[in-house]
Design goal:
Number of domains: 4
Oligomer: single chain
Structural class: mainly beta
Largest sheet: 13 strands, mixed
């Protein structure tokens, strides 16, 4: 069984990256002697971006988005080039986008320094200059090279660790090994393809499923996802960063984030921190997912070890005990017809390592186990917009969220709840007091960060859009709970 020393869902560093990404600095006028103070504003109040040595002035950047979605980070920039300076050295094949961003909590968290390969450029000539839109993806040399790799023995965990040496990137995980030893070969396919196929067939036990991705800091993260959904109980420690202000002096003592019990919330007491939720919205993809993948899937193959047909079904995992107090996203309540929505995948003949074959015994089962569970977690979730870039937000981190309603929203919710359950309506003052907050017990609780975007717009500041997912949802309490805290 794959275990971590402290039985935690935290993703911990195993190997540091060796890939060197050159530092970028602001140029200055040597004659004036006015060297800019890199410790305060550069890359903090706005993104610091260079393309072919041309630094984009922040007031010419119209929109900026750095996204963690997908296997590796991507970037999208829309900007105005008023003097057509980019024409002098227009990006060509192999040219890069250079990005530098500082963390609000700079002493504890790493800076974001990424080079991006340019995927595409579009432009539009205007009277005020040329409007550009540039898309890029994190540059990792050799990631897309067709290279032969040979690993005669070892687990998926160890093979991915060795691949990181090849790419000179770091490695991080929330486990210490897997139970899927087998020979693995990459016969002139890309290294990214090898990483993803190895992850797809990774196996630790029947209660585990895996995902891999490269984060903002050049670490390959190899995550056992199920343990990320097992977290509950007391609030975790985290860092509340001050909201991003362009005049904040990052060199001052005490200007960094303060560590305390951490959560994301739209309560007014959080407004001065980057953990403040400015807006939120629910999403539901359940129909699209079950129509494509069913509610469970069978892995069928002919087992050459036993010379018989084998069939194993995968029913997506749920948190132990959740079915008693939560809504499980498996069909409509009281309707059992969902059990007939079953899919099958036939894999042909299978020779395992138990009988001189080249596949680990759970190879086909793991492929379905990982696919079904990684798909299932995308059924329903919450999208929140934060007041700046929160240093504590990382992919697949478990995070508590507390959503409140106030004023007319609280009153309407409370009255509807009282009427629905036949409860005597409480005095109006209990939920119309402007200082009183009604906690939404359906939306509040523990979530897992699936993805996040860091966005910046002209005449604005940084905002972080976080995509949160949840496998089980609480039984709705129509009235909610009154919280008179101010």
């Amino acid at each position: 069984m794959a275990v971590l020393g402290n039985n935690s869902s935290d993703i911990l560093t195993v190997k540091e990256p060796a890939l060197v990404v050159e530092e970028i600095k602001e140029s200055y006028n040597e004659e004036s002697g006015s060297e800019p103070d890199d410790t305060k504003l550069i890359g903090y109040a706005n993104p610091f971006i260079k393309i072919n040595g041309l630094r984009l002035a922040y007031d010419n950047i119209i929109k900026f988005k750095l996204s963690s979605a997908g296997f590796r980070p991507s970037i999208n920039i829309q900007f105005l080039d008023p003097d057509d300076m980019l024409d002098a050295d227009f990006p060509k094949d192999g040219d890069l986008i250079e990005l530098y961003m500082r963390s609000p909590n700079n002493n504890k968290y790493k800076k974001i320094r990424i080079d991006f390969d340019i995927l595409g450029i579009s432009s539009n000539q205007l009277k005020t200059g040329t409007n550009y839109n540039i898309r890029g993806i994190m540059r990792i040399p050799d990631l897309l090279s067709d290279i032969t790799l040979q690993y005669p023995s070892g687990t998926s965990y160890n093979h991915l660790l060795e691949v990181c040496d090849k790419l000179k990137i770091g490695f991080a995980s929330n486990i210490t090994d897997t139970i899927d030893e087998m020979p693995r070969f990459n016969a002139k396919n890309t290294i990214q393809d090898f990483i993803q196929k190895t992850t797809e067939t990774s196996y630790a036990d029947d209660e585990s499923f895996f995902v891999s991705y490269v984060d903002m800091f050049y670490y390959l993260n190899y995550v056992e996802v199920n343990r990320c959904f097992q977290v509950e109980g007391p609030l975790p420690d985290g860092d509340y960063d001050g909201a991003t202000f362009s005049n904040q002096d990052k060199g001052n003592e005490g200007s960094e984030g303060v560590q305390q019990k951490f959560m994301l919330s739209n309560h007014k007491n959080m407004q001065s921190s980057t953990a403040f939720i400015m807006s939120y919205s629910l999403f539901n993809n359940a129909g699209d997912i079950w129509m494509k993948d069913g509610y469970k899937r069978y892995a069928d193959f002919y087992n050459m070890d036993t010379n018989e047909f084998s069939s194993f079904f995968v029913d997506p995992l749920t948190t132990t005990g959740a079915e008693t107090d939560n809504v499980i996203l498996k069909g409509r309540a009281g309707d059992e017809s969902y059990q007939n929505q079953v899919k099958y995948k036939y894999f042909g003949r299978s020779y395992s390592t138990q009988n001189e074959g080249n596949l680990h015994p759970n190879y086909h089962y793991a492929k379905i186990q990982n696919h079904q569970n990684n798909t299932e977690i995308n059924k329903m979730g919450l999208v929140v917009a934060l007041n700046g870039v929160c240093s504590s937000i990382l992919k697949y981190k478990s995070i508590p969220v507390s959503i409140f309603k106030q004023g007319a929203h609280a009153k309407n919710r409370r009255m509807a709840g009282d009427e629905l359950v036949g409860r005597e309506m409480e005095t109006e003052e209990a939920y119309t007091d402007p200082s009183g907050y009604l906690q939404d017990t359906f939306l509040s609780g523990w979530y897992v960060v699936k993805d996040y975007d860091i966005v910046w717009q002209k005449n604005g500041s940084f905002t972080q859009i976080v995509y949160l997912v949840r496998r089980e949802w609480p039984l709705p309490y129509p009235g909610g709970n009154i919280n008179q805290s101010k």
